[in-house]
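Researcher: Next entry in the queue.
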Amino acid sequence: MIKILFRKFTEVLFFILFITLVSFIFIRLAPGDPVLTILNVDELSVSQEQVEELREELGFNEPVLVQYGLWLSKFVQFDFGQSFVTGQDVMDTIMTALPATMELTIGAIVVMLVVALPIGSLSALYRDSWIDKVSRTFSIIGAAVPSFWLGLIFIDLFGVRLNWFPTMGRDGLLSLVLPSITLGLAISSVYVRLLRSSLLDSYSQEFVRAARARGLSEARIFFVHTFRHSIPPVITVFGVSLGSLIGGVVVVEVLFAYPGIGKLIVEAIRQRDYPLIQGYILIMGMIVFVVNTCVDLSYRYLNPELHYKEKENNG
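Model: Structure for this entry, 315 residues:
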């Protein structure tokens, strides 16, 4: 375990350097003058002296690598800088918006579990039945339908026509329902197919036949043996697809005007707020890295074969 944690710590250092350097360079390669965007003026309404003064103040006259070095020197002191637009501390701004995004992410994961677990399980248990056909149809449609289109349908039907749920803002649990369902349904189709495939693979293993030979009930075989054996691949894919989930959160937050970090970063990109963009990329990258690390560690205990192999190698 110590070796694994040390290796992960080394990986996270290189990971931080890589994503921050690449994002820093690509952000500044965007066309247009960021100073004019920050001032929210055109070239005719401000003097060149004012533009050059602000550019010098923000360090834009320095080479990109020098700017990155200055940013990195502040980062190691846990200083993410201030927003160009609001002047507020970047970390405080992100931490203020992050709880709303976490609520939406958790809500989407709950919806995904409620939909994917029973549908995927029933599809595997009743293979080639009408349940299986409906499940596969749902998976195909779910993979093809974009989340923003699904969100627009929900807004029109449940928000405007039926007036059951609010369609904008963050005001209690009701305002979380439509965004969570939109995002949860958008990602659940992947896990329905994956769980079905993993369960079918588990049912073909020797331990299932041995359990049936011992006279165990089908319910016990499913919950104690088959389902447990099928979960690790699903968890692994969840860690890998977390980036897609975060991307979906951004789209859904903008669509429902949900005041989370996704909506915040869209505004920051529009306003060329470099420190806020850089802070968002770093925070989201770290969240993805931490989740993937937790998935990697949990996989070693959820998968008995891998756990025993590691014990043999260490022994």
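Model: The chain has 14 helices and no strands.
Researcher: Noted, moving on.
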